[in-house]
Each structure stands twice: as structure tokens, then as C-alpha cells.
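Task card 7
Instruction: Convert sequence to C-alpha cells.
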Amino acid sequence: ALARSSAALLRGGRRSLGVKALVTENPLLLQESLPLFSAIKAVHVKDAVSGALSSMESEFESLESRLQQSGDVSYSAVIEELEKLEAPVEYSWGVVNHLMGVKNSDELRAAHGEVQGEVVKTTTKLSQSEAVFKALEALEKDGSLEPAQQRIVQSSLSSMRLSGVGLQGEEKERFNANRIRLSELSTAFSNNLLDATKAFSLTLTEPAQVDGLPPSALALAASRAAEEGEEGATAESGPWRLGLDMPSYLPAMKFLRDRSVREALYRAFVTRAGEVNAPLIRQILQIKQEQASILGFGSYAEVSIERKMAPSVEAVYDLTEMLLAKAFPAAQKELQQLTEFATANGFDGAALALWDVSFWSERLSEHTFGFEQEELRPYFALDNVLDGLFGLCRRLYGVEIVRSDGEAEVWHADVGFFKVLDEASGEHLASFFLDPYARPENKRGGAWMGVCVGRSKVLDRKPVAYLTCNGSPPVDGKPSLMTFDEVTTLFHETGHGLQHMLTKVAHAPAAGISGVEWDAVELPSQFMENWCYDPATVYDAGMAKHYETGEPLPRDLFGKLCEQRTFQAGMGMIRQLMFGALDMRLHHTYDPRGEQTPFELQHELAERYAVLPPLPDDRFLCSFGHIFAGGYSAGYYSYKWAEVLSADAFAAFEEAGLDDEQAVREVGRRFRDTVLALGGGTAPSDVFRAFRGRDPSPEPLLRHSGLA
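Output:
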């Protein structure tokens, strides 16, 4: 996933502020280096952000006057001047939003809430400037612009139209008030979800209750119990504390034999933040619908599609229906096989319940492929996985990634800092932070890439990324031993990071992921996941070797892992299609002021998209942060849309020959020079054609999923 700041208009880059009196005391205003995380406190937020906003407003008024008086509508006089004046706010507010996700606290929330409305109000004012809009309209006719500059101007005009530049009077006031309210509701939704995840715990004291839980999960559960005051807690004798964060929840659902414990965990998980976020969902949907109406659109989905690669909502529905027709019969067959296996192996219920599926799927996988997921963990220590990942980046893209801890301040001791160098020249291209482990006490769940610094020729900035995961932490003196899902997640987020860091576009509004249509941004991330199944990636750089003995992952075990890739692919695909369809229906045809609740719509769609219906009190939507607290509203379909692109992109390597090292390197460099380099400066359909030589085909996705 990608992190999206609520100050979406801001274009990137940094510089120091002209607020001289504050600079010496406030680390958020010291912007010539990377963030001074050790010094940044909640008390700094209001002064820094308010001061930056005040300076920006003053400079913006001067810019408007110059544009109106001088008539200079050159690219540098408009776009580059906007970039310079927006940079300080983008820096300080970006750091605050990042810390909200990785080091949340009551004090930071209060400070964030105090200035959030001010940020939205000011950035909205910029996006509705008639002077800037007229200058951009004139600039659009400038035949001397580079293609990337032309795209930036056109994208800026589109963004301003969708931000209400054409509105007047009462409509404009209502639209602007709605924007502030939406930002507040999204933040509240995210905070409520973090709180609900953190608030739940289940402490078990009887060994029979944790029967089946693997040693790594027992050790984590005992360490969590000890942290909460259970003195003497051990993996062998307990007590054990389970939670709803992924490193705790997933092993419990897959391995616990006690069905009642699984049920308790499942019910808690699917009702997280149910009471507090349910009313927020209605409010968010109502306001978005009203915003769309004010702008002259029939639905918020139509607004969203304006800035997407997909040509229409109908095109999204068409792709969904095509994939559903392939996946649903496979999912029905998979559930039947699972039920038959469970019944033959001791399950005595009338039918599998939702809290049985993960448990029995894991048993069926073990039976089918002859290995347990837990057997893989010792071979995927984080440092070894990074060696494999960095080796792949060198092989495909010609870059060296070097650990550079100590060269930048971090927000937690577990965070690492890395530099990306061009292999041939040694040039320092970019850097990134990696925050690998779950911290349910103050870090939100999921995984994402966020922008710390964007590439900018005007501001002389190299890109810096935040890569954030919620993987298994080190326990009992052992390093972080990753599940294979955690490995693919790390590769996924690195794909986002590489597009941000290896951009060759010098203009910040189109550098990296900036300006890339949202349904194309998942191309490089999902593409990178494929390499977790590539023998050269897994073995040649020491990615999969036992953390104690150094022995490589047995080849037969790796072969079984590759076979397992398409296990229950039908059920996995319809789950994602369900999320995308629900998101699109909520934002396109659903009436949030009508009698039907969002949860009733979820149940209605489940009749078409799910082989097991959700519980009557399922409140999954109350934890669907992607669409209610992120950038994926009326855009969750982007994962499947981009997966068509990513699977077809990987097929280019298959066609060249994955065992032909020279061919792999050549195609890898072409991927770097197109998909990773061209950013938002080229339309994604043109980028794909530049790499692949043709338009994308869904066939590789169906083939990779075992659904062809």
C-alpha cells in the first residue's frame, strides 16, 4: 500500500523556512537534513505547521500578484515557484503524518487534530486559486514544454477542477467545509482502529488452549504476557497473551486446535472498532457523495475514476466480472475439497465456520505439499532476506543497497537506514528507512511505503522513502524469523520504494509515484512479489539459509513452496474482488442516506462474491482503512487492475528465460528505465507499452493464479 497525506496538493521537496525565530528551537523547521526524529515532540507540531502555513500563504499571495501583473506564465514561474513555496509545509506535515502511523500517542493525536483543519483549509485555498488556474491554462498551450512538464500541467489543472476551483459562493463554502470534515473523520477512523486493535487481548493459562501453536508464536505470546506484568511467563508454561495484530493473530487462526479460542479471536477481529467507526462510515460516504454532486458528478466513484488509468467505472466492473467468472467456480471447488478433508480428519461440525477455514486450510496445505509453514521460518531471518532482496535489485536494476545506520536519525531502535547507489557509477541515488516489526501499542497495522523526500531538481533533493511493515519481531534472543507472507510483503513495499527512488523524472510533481494514476501504482510492488519464487533470488544471494547452521533452504522444500503458490487461488481472488466491488458499490450506487446499511450491502454482495457468508454482526468495513482512512476509496480495485499489469510484466522475464542471466539483466534494466524511471511524467499505458511492446493481457495473471 501507499501512504497518502491529507495535504495531497502539496508537491514535494524541502527547504528551510523563513520563520527565523522558530527555526532554532523547532526540529520540524530544520529542513536542510533528514528529520531529526530524536528531537521531534508533539509540542513542536502546532508552531511548526502553523508557522509553515503562514509563510506559505504569504508567499502564495505574492505569487498570485506576480502572475496577475507580469503575465509570466512560464513553467518555472508557475509550477516551480509553487513547488518551492509548498515544500516547507509538505516536509513538516509529512513528518507528523508519518509519526501518526508509526509512533502514535495521545499527545501527538491532539497536536495533529489541532492543526489538521488549518492544513486542509490552506491547501484547499491554493488549489482553488483562479490566478494559478488561469496561468496553468495558458501554460498548457506552451508548445515548448517537455512531455513530463505537459503531463504535470494537465494533471494540475485536473486536480484543481476536482478541488473546486470553479465553485462560487455557498457551494464553495460547503465544499471546503466538507474537505476539512473528511480529513477529521479519516483520522478518527484510523485512530479508532488502532485503539481497538491495541485494546483487545486474550490471555490463556491452560496448555490445552494453546495446543498446536508453533514455538515462535508461543514465544511471542509469552513475551507479550510478560510485558503486561505476567512475571515468569514462558513459552512452555505460559501464560500466553494473544492479540489482533498480524504476527499474533494469524498463527493463532492457522494453528490453534481449540476451536473456541479461534472463534473468540475471529469475532473480535471482524468487529474491531465496530461501534465507533460504523457511524463514521455513513458520514464519510454522505460527504463524499455531496462533494461529487457539487462538482457535477453522479457519484464519488466517477470523481475517483477521473484520475485513474481505468477509463470508466464500467471498465472496472468488466474486469471484476471477467475475473469472478474464472475464480468463483474454483473457490466453490476449493471449499468443497476443504470441507471433505476436514470431515475426514476429525472435524465433526455440520459445516465449516469462518474461524475454521484458516486452520483447516493450513492442515490441507501440509497434507498436500508435505511441509508446514513453520518449517520455513528458520530459513528466512530478516537480514538474510534483505541480502536476497538487495541482490535481486543489483541483478535486475544495477543498484547497490548499503546499510547506513547512524547516518540518519530514526523514530525507533528497530528502524534501519539504507542508501541506494548506482552499481556502475557509485552515485548515491536515494535512501530509505525500513521499520520492519509490529508494535501494536503505537503503530498502525498493515504495510506501506511513504514519501519522506521526493526527487526535485528545483530543490536539489534526492528521494528518500519510508518502508513500513508489521512483521514478526525478534523473540527469545533469536532474530526476526519471517513467515513467507512477510517476505513477499517486504518485497511488495520495496517495489513501491524503488519506483519512488529510481525515478529519472527531475520535476517533483511527476517524480517517482507523484502523478502516477492510482490504479497503476501497484504494478512495481506486485511485480516484485514474483521474485520470491525465483531460484536465483532465493539461493544466489543467501536469502533462504538457516539462521543457525547457514544451510540453504532444501531444494525440495522450495519446490513445494512454489507448488503451493496457487493453493486456494480461487478463494484468495474472490476475497480481493469482493473488497473491490464493495468499495466501488459504496461509492457509486449506494445511497448512504437510504435505509440499507453499508453492512447490509456487504451481505448482499457476499451472495455473489463469497463462498462463506460473513457473520451477521461482521463489521469488517469498520477496519477497512484503505478506503475510509487512506487513498483507495473507489480505488481498491487498483490492486487487481495493476496485478494484470504486474503479471504481464513478469511474463516478459519468463519469455526471455529466467535461467538466462544475461536476458534477465537486460529485461530488468528495461523495467528500470520504463516502469521505475518514468513516474508520473508519462501515461501508464504508454509506460507499459514502452516496457512490454504492447498493451497488457490478463492471461499471465490467470496463468500465475492457476485459473487459466
